[in-house]
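HUMAN: Now follow token order:
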Amino acid sequence: MNEFIVVVEDEEDIRELIRYNLEKDGYRVVSVNSGEEGLSLVRHSPPDLVVLDLMLPGIDGLQVCREMKADPVLKSVPIVMVTARGDEPDVVSGLELGADDYISKPFSPKVLLARVKTVLRRKQQGALDLQSIVRHERLLVNPQRREVAIDNERIELTNTEFKLLHFLIRQPGTVFTRDQIVEGVHGDDYPVTDRSVDVQVVGLRKKLLEYGACIETVRGVGYRFKS
């Protein structure tokens, strides 16, 4: 089944340009012209992706993004922002709220389609990665069995420690802030303070023995799994 995309854009010409080109490329599309309509639609029928203008009357795009990311059902829906202010703080704010990418007006249909395809592909790959066994030298992480082993010797981790390790090791070299770690892990008992994240990392490092050093502190930013 083709992916379902919601377009939220108040400028009719741009809204129709986006809708036409997405439908021409095989996507199922519903377009609306306000943030209120957009939120109502995605809550009723969660899409595979949202193309969201930031400058909307009433509820603006940043608020739509904020409310989607606070909704347990919608938080994983990718958002591609559309903005006329490509280098201004609104774009940064949108990305910090959890939007996946942005395109600046004016844009070509080819750029739009390329960004949409990339974001959808990344989402699909991420879903696969969540179940994929990850190896780093003699360290093995098996998400399907919730097991970690070094040289086939099982390492006992708490559920939170396992999720933290799996989150970092799936993207070696990528630096994550503490907020991103909390957002990405979401264990039932996962702490929500910066200090608690640090404590979890200290405990995990000890249990991973020589591989504990692979979880590297990036001063002033957060952590990464050193490849």
About this structure: The chain has two domains: 4-129, 134-225. The CA atoms of residues 84 and 105 lie 5 Å apart. The two ends are 37 Å apart (CA to CA). Residues 109-129 form the longest helix (21 residues).
